[in-house]
Amino acid sequence: MTTQTATRTQVAGPRRRKVAGTGWHGLRTLTLTEARLLLRDPGTVFFALLFPTVLLVGVGFAIPGMREVITDAPPPWGGLTAVAVYVPVALATAVATVALTTMPVYFATFREKGVLRRLSTTPMRPQGLIGAHLFINLVTVCVAALLAVLVGSLVFDLAAPANPAVVGGSFLLGILSMFSLGMLIASRAGKASTASAIGMTLYFPMLFLAGMWTPGPIMPEVLRTIGGYTPLGAATQAMTTGWFEDGVPLSQLVVMAVWTVVLLPLAVKLFRWS
């Protein structure tokens, strides 16, 4: 009895160590490896990490009057510089760029090249690769947004948010809703080119409704109403409220939550592994 137990222990021991090696340690190694590969892609680094900052600084210097104080608008816009009103748009751009142009293309590439199918035969399941990239994309969005705010504050002396909790919560909920949309695209796109085409088709209209060309108070009421029902437009409006006003943008938060609750389970259900 003792000999049999010892034998089973000796056999089971290496198996447990092997599984553990492909668990947290393997996922961490995979995440670091994929992050390094992403950083080697100049296009991804520019658009995912640097584009929001370049956009904010470029708008501030290239468009006349953006650095001047607004004097003919009611509160809370009076006394602000025009470029300050553009900050929530830059943060929304950081979210949209990763959610619609980076993440779906990577996942579709994995499917197109059979990476997900081959991983299903290894101890590191394909879900690990998906989880690693979701984490990488989340960190990328946060770094891009933080960089835009820091550089914008140094260059344009931006005012601090009136309600940081609302801004942060709106930003995170915007990430959830937009990532859910990006995952839905990634769930069915069989090729990287298909994912890119779908993502770009949604990217520019969403940026338009989020206020890229008509930020803050200069957006027509009709466009503001329509944009408030899109995940990115709702995120921009909610962050704008949190940055410059005192209220809680309840309707925009509900819109983003609904988009997340609807799209995320749908993306999981429809996701193709091959």
TrEMBL record:
GO terms for cellular component: ATP-binding cassette (ABC) transporter complex. It is a multi-pass membrane protein. It holds the Pfam family ABC2_membrane. One of its GO terms (molecular function) is ABC-type transporter activity. Keywords: Antibiotic resistance, Cell membrane, Membrane, Transmembrane, Transmembrane helix, Transport. InterPro entries: ABC-2_transporter, ABC2_TM, ABC2_TM_bact-type, ABC_2_transport. Its main location: membrane. It is found in: Cell membrane; Membrane. GO terms for biological process: response to antibiotic. Residues 43-274 form the ABC transmembrane type-2 domain. The chain crosses the membrane at residues 45-63, 83-108, 129-156, 162-185, 197-214, 250-271. Belongs to the ABC-2 integral membrane protein family. This is Transport permease protein.
